Amino acid sequence: MRYINMIILSSVLSVCGCSTELKPTTVSINDTIRHYYPIMTGEILTLSYEIENTGKEPLVISEIQSTCGCIATDDKRKVIQEGQKAILNFEYDSSKNIGYVEHEIMLYGNFENSSVRKLYFDVNVVPGADYTEDYEALYKEREKRNSILKENKSANRKNYYVDTTTKDR
What architecture is domain 21-126? Predict the structure, then answer.
């Protein structure tokens, strides 16, 4: 008898239970596309995005994904009540990158018009001085490989050349 009562109670609750449908809401995110100043390889770049729920429903960010494993976040899920603001914090570890890099961070939730909002950023990651050879070392290496430089070496040689075909600009 107790078993039958439990089945009836659970079926009544499932039919009359609360609605779990998330209604879409509007949000405001400042500066979704960012261009950061150059950083050195190995530096950590901290990114903070302020997101405001401007709608009439709670905003549920169900998942946060990035295009690189080098981006970490403090939250994977977040609920922001209507009219409230929250800060989404990320850390970009530049240890494995050199040069110009650009990344996306995708926020999945009950956003109006789309289930995803994208945050973009780019930065130039500059290698340390010990990583690349300086110009003098590169020149000496090139001088060893290139016989033309050896043949043209003289005491009065200048460090530039003049184009003889065009005299004036």
Answer: Sandwich (2.60)
Q: Kindly report, residue by residue over 29-40, the tens digit of the pLDDT.
A: 988 888 988 988
In whole angstroms, what is the distance from residue 16 CA to residue 11 CA? 9
Distance CA 121, CA 130 (A): 27
Q: Has this prediction a pTM greater than 0.70? A: no
For residue 52, which of 66, 73, 31, 36 has the smallest C-alpha distance?
A: 31
Q: Return the C-alpha torsion angle 129, 133, 136, 137, nearest 10.
A: 140
Residue type, 30: N
Give the list of residues 6+ apart from residue 41 with CB closer than 8 angstroms, or none: 94, 95, 97, 98, 125, 126, 127, 128, 131
Residue 90 tokens, joined: 């990320």
CA atoms lying within 13 Å on the CB side of residue 160: 3
**Residue whose token pair is 């390889």:** 41
Domain boundary assignment for the chain: 21-126
